[in-house]
Hints:
- The protein is α/β, with parallel strands linked by helices.
- It has helices at residues 13-26, 38-42, 46-55, 66-74, 92-97, 107-115, 140-147, 167-183, 196-201, 329-336, 340-345; strands spanning 7-11, 32-33, 60-63, 80-83, 101-104, 120-127, 135-136, 152-158, 190-194, 209-210, 228-240, 245-246, 252-253, 258-263, 281-284, 287-290, 300-303, 315-322, 325-327, 352-355.
- The strands form 4 sheets. Strands 2, 3, 4, 5, 6, 7, 8, 9 and 10 form a 9-stranded parallel sheet that branches. Strands 1, 11, 14, 17, 18, 19 and 20 form a 7-stranded mixed sheet that branches.
Amino acid sequence: xxxxxRAWIEIDRAALQxxxxxxxxxxPPGCVLMPAVKANAYGHGAVPIARECQKMGIGAFCVAxxxxxxxxxxxxxxxxxxxxxxxxxxxxxLLHQYRLTQTVVTLAYARELNRQGKPIEVHIKIDTGMHxxxxxxxxxxxxxxxxHCENLRVAGAFTHLCADSMAKEQGRRFYQTxxxxxxxxxxxxxxHLLASDGLIDHxxxxxxxxxxxxxxxxxxxxxxxxxxxxxxxxxxxxxxxxGESAGYExxxxxxxxxxxxxxxxxxxxxxPRALSCGGGxxxxxxxxxxxxGLVCMDQTMVDVTEIPQASQGDTAVVLGRWGDxxxxxxxxxxxxxxxxxxxxxxxxxxxxxxVL
Length: 356
Ligand SMILES: *Cc1c(COP(=O)(O)O)cnc(C)c1O
């Protein structure tokens, strides 16, 4: 399959396993991993990542959208699947049919879901300071109201940490809320608050699940290994004389007799256009080739003047390693003025995904 691909993602199963084990060692007592496989597992491919995790004994996942949960079920992923984001209550039948757990973020939303008349498992989102989704942690009556929705089974409650400086305080608020609910006779069952940063920096905050995304994919800590490589082919190599220009707006001009390789990947595949004109590079034959001119939708030109072996049909590494050289998602993110999560989650559907 790789032989025939235009541009593709390689998933390093050994790296994924390494990260799972490294993160499991850091888990607080009683806590298990709940990989975040939303946004196509941050571009890695939700089905292959969930499948590999399942083989490693992981039995809970979280996604952002109903369609993402359904896709996992249709590909045989068992266990708990928590939808972290909004689902139209009219879709209650699908939540029920595919045994998906829905996050409820207000009592009004819970009641609307309840009115659909389908038995549905829910986790209550509690806002402990991020002020994005969830019921305010002091609003105990509103939280308790969810337990009285007869079609909803409250299987969990969670919060999301938003800043390192707030983590301890958010933890305090969250556990205080859980304790007060217990005093009133409500048991939220599974409670959770850690994502990748939380697990790495504040494991003492505990909980029943760690909802890890970024760390699972090998980003954010030197002890973790990147799981994804992104590769493309050389469609053509051409020679330019000194002074000749290439690409849209002729943004590349040869300062010397030059060789330009055209790679089969572009911003339509998720490669940021901000890598244009030397901002980014690709690896060919273990050497760095800077981007020449503007990144196009389907192609990117790189300068291979100093890589005489470069020829049509070659493979180029756009993200990943070649010998001692590497291009990390963090490096590309820096060049593009964003964070690795955005770079990875935008990697397109047009890319093949292969587990090695
Ligand atoms: C995306 C997300 C996560 C995973 O975050 P990482 O920082 O990638 O580990 C966890 N919880 C919620 C609510 C999220 O939206």
